[in-house]
Write a structure and sequence with these properties.
Distance between the termini: 36 Å
Strand content: 25-35%
Largest sheet: 6 strands, parallel
CATH topology of one domain: Rossmann fold
Number of strands: 24
Protein name: Trk system potassium uptake protein TrkA
CATH architecture of one domain: 3-Layer(aba) Sandwich
Number of helices: 16
CATH class of one domain: Alpha Beta
Radius of gyration: 23 Å
GO molecular function, one term: potassium ion transmembrane transporter activity
Organism: Desulfocapsa sulfexigens (strain DSM 10523 / SB164P1)
Structural class: alpha/beta
Keywords: Ion transport, NAD, Potassium, Potassium transport, Transport
GO cellular component, one term: plasma membrane
Length: 466
């Protein structure tokens, strides 16, 4: 065993600079961690060197010499996110040998990291298994089983909820500032905490005007949700007919999870894969064809569907296919219900664009995995971190520390620059959740739900914890 050295600040060793590795590295560096990366591809190293303030080592994740060069014995966390499951799991055992306390491994296979797995996490010395594809599939299934809203997530153990709503031309919120909306509906305790517009996410102030085609994020108590749904024109709709384009890991897993409870059609353009899926998914109707083709979609029964999911491995295909579906439905008017479109978007820069074009919800597995890892790393400070799909924003559940900056002023008197990126949605006091307003004073020990731009988690921590 190698000796473990005490270090004054937390250091993280990342193995692999693929999509998830690079995303994690950028985010962790921004949060102030000392990051070292081992990557075999000199091309990926060169690309990362242009934009990343981290120590980069070219070499194999299995090379002990590379680990020694990285000063592995001084690391607090090891995150293995190479494209090889076996390497990622074996890396946890190597990290254990160097005395790294916290080991995180990304695996695609569901044969590992489950309660009934032959080899458990303790056997492999893994503290946290990350299954990005499984996270994406589970999240999409959760959203399908919701009966209302483009998206609703529970926060604070279900006591508060954040709901995403598309603003139509005839919406009661259109062309009104948030101050005007609050005055008009002052009998309902809610707050608009984020707006997706074009390719940007806006953390609003009272003077921000809501425009048609905006996607707005509303925070409210669970008991207020029915009235808000009525106000925003959202109707409960059970989604029982689902079409999926793409039979990869995510698409096939969604079909498997939905099982016999939902009627599922899956379009796959590769004949060999379609044949394989037909035997793997007995409860799913497998169709051979290109799901981005209008005629194929129509022949496959798009008109009968109430949910459409594009889960191919290509960002542009997923976004454009959802746009095509919306166009077909609007022009033909053949569906009995409003169809919900969900796209898998692997490029985080496209998430907001997707949600404001043709996708009601855009899912990014890198962001889901990143939040899972970040919540694990910061679990002593933050109760949870959730990403709002379609917004470049995070919902953070945390407790204000004594003498922290947030406790010294009312929300209206906090730093004006931060107000453009951070908003406190609600505060728990006197045994109940209260919608936060400008005059709200957060006290030490108060639990709060905060919404922030994705790159401002560090600032939230500084406000609440320093």
């Amino acid at each position: 065993m190698f000796g473990k050295k005490n270090t004054p600040s937390e250091s993280i060793l990342i193995l692999g600079l693929g999509g998830i590795g690079l995303y994690l590295a950028k985010r962790l560096v921004h949060e102030g961690y000392a990051v070292t990366i081992i990557e075999a591809s000199s091309q990926l190293i060169s690309r990362a060197d242009e934009s990343l303030d981290a120590r980069l080592i070219t070499g194999s994740a299995m090379s002990i010499e590379c680990w020694k060069e990285a000063n592995a014995e001084s690391m607090d966390f090891m995150i293995a996110v190479t494209d090889n499951d076996a390497v990622n799991m074996l890396s946890a055992m190597i990290a254990h040998g160097f005395g790294i306390e916290q080991k995180i491994s990304r695996v695609r296979s569901l044969e590992y990291g489950q309660k009934d797995s032959l080899l458990q996490a303790d056997d492999l010395k893994v503290d946290l298994f990350i299954h990005p594809e499984e996270l994406a599939a589970q999240e999409i299934v959760r959203l399908i089983k919701r009966t209302a809203g483009d998206e609703i997530i529970d926060v604070a153990l279900g006591k508060m909820q954040a709901m995403a709503v598309q603003v139509d031309d005839d919406s009661q919120f259109a062309h009104k500032t948030l101050i005007e909306i609050a005055r008009a509906y002052n009998d309902i305790a809610f707050r608009v905490v984020a707006i997706a517009r074009g390719i940007s996410t806006i953390i609003p102030t009272g003077k921000t005007e809501v425009l048609p085609h905006d996607q707005i994020l509303i925070m409210a108590g669970t008991e207020e949700l029915p009235r808000l749904m009525e106000l925003t024109g959202i109707k409960k709709q059970h989604r029982l007919r689902v079409m999926i384009v793409g039979g990869g890991l995510v698409g096939s897993r969604i079909a498997q999870l939905l099982g016999k409870t939902v009627r599922v059609k899956l379009l796959e353009k590769d004949k060999e894969r379609a044949t394989e899926l037909a035997s793997l998914l007995p409860d799913t109707e497998i169709l051979l064809g290109d799901g981005s083709d209008k005629d194929v979609l129509s022949a496959g029964g798009l008109a009968d569907m109430d949910t459409f999911i594009s889960a191919t491995g290509e960002n542009e295909t997923n976004i454009m296919t959802c746009m095509l579906v919306k166009h077909i439905v609007e022009n033909q008017g053949t569906t009995q219900h409003k169809i919900k479109t969900i796209s898998l978007v692997n490029k985080e820069e496209y998430v907001v664009l997707a949600s404001t074009s043709g996708s009601d919800i855009a899912i990014n597995k890198k962001i889901l995995a990143g939040n899972e890892i970040f919540t694990f790393i910061r679990r002593s400070e933050m109760l949870s971190v959730s990403h709002m799909h379609g917004f470049d924003a995070e919902v953070v559940d945390l407790i204000a520390a004594p003498k922290s900056t947030i406790t010294k002023k009312t929300l209206a008197n906090l730093d004006g620059k931060l107000a453009e990126h951070i908003i406190v949605g609600s505060v728990f006091r006197d045994g109940k959740w209260e919608t936060a307003v400008g005059e709200t004073q957060v006290n030490a020990g108060d639990r709060a739900i905060v919404i922030c731009d994705s790159l401002y988690l560090k600032n939230v921590r500084e406000l609440f914890l320093n």
